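To start, one record:
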Amino acid sequence: MFLMRKTLLFGLLAACLGFGMPARAQEMPPPIVIVEKAALRMLAPTIDVPGTVVSRFDARLAAEVSAKLEWIADVGSVVKKGDTVARLDDITFQFSEKEAKSRVDRERARVTFLRAEKSRLEKLDANNLSAKSQLEQTTADLAIAESDQAIAEAQLGQAQVAMFVTQIKAPFDGIVTEKLRNIGERLNVADEVIRLVDPNSIEVVARAPLNTVGFIENGDVLEIYNDYREGEGLVRTTVPFGDPQSHMFEVRLDVDPDIWTVGESVRLSMPTAAAKQVMAVPRDALILRREGISIFRIKDDMTAEQISVTTGLGAGTLIEVIGDVNINDRVVVRGAERLSTGMTVDIRQNGAAGPAVNSKH
């Protein structure tokens, strides 16, 4: 009985340890790696400068007349160009418009009468039936009446403009982001009422050192990133006139409104020298060990080969490598920690290095 129990126990232990199992079942699966291809890229040394995402259409709309605020759009309202975003009490301006219109009607009637009178006197004068002085007086009165009519029409126009601007209208499509006054408040001319921002017309504004101005041009693509996302921006314009105290100049870039939000802080990679063509790989491919820097290349037989390299220029996610690296070599960017030369691997994702930062277009 003791012998049977001992044999059974040994059998269970052997099963747990894999004794007697086929060699193929005991083999570990090859490690999974992710690779990207080495490529020749135009890279330049860069520095990071701070920037801010702003809208090209960001306005604080103000009152153009003195009146009480009667209505204002809610924050978050989406409006189109020409929509009313705030309305002032217009009762006083209604009376002013009515008064101005009555004055115009009166002056027009007077002008009509004097023109008819002048025409009548001219006919009488032709027959020597009217005094010449009376015709001259009527002519002068008509000129004054026509001038008064023009003044009255101008005053009517001013009254109509005042009526029109009691409704503050959106000068562009956008979103109401801030109410600066409340309903019932008395406003004076130029008092800010509401803030309107177009979130679809955005750009990044940054200030960079003057020593970088010679290495960027309109149309260049620069890397933009922050702690939450990354992307690219197209240089729209530069203002190559620096502040003599800060030695900085302004650069503006068009960016994707689906990625960035007005008000975000970002960083830009600005070139500090002319770009040159180098062999580049992603920074994630580098293995930093005590004996030096290396990368792993995957050969055609799916085995790994460790290659010692030295690094050069770095720009964004790419870095120059100097060593036995060729174009389209598949270099490991994920899963290299436990690799060794000759180890068979399993490639689950195969891509190509991203577009070069600061490349000319």
In short: The first helix runs from residue 2 to 17. The chain has four domains: 28-41+276-352, 46-56+201-271, 60-88+166-198, 90-165. The chain is about 25% helix and 40% strand.
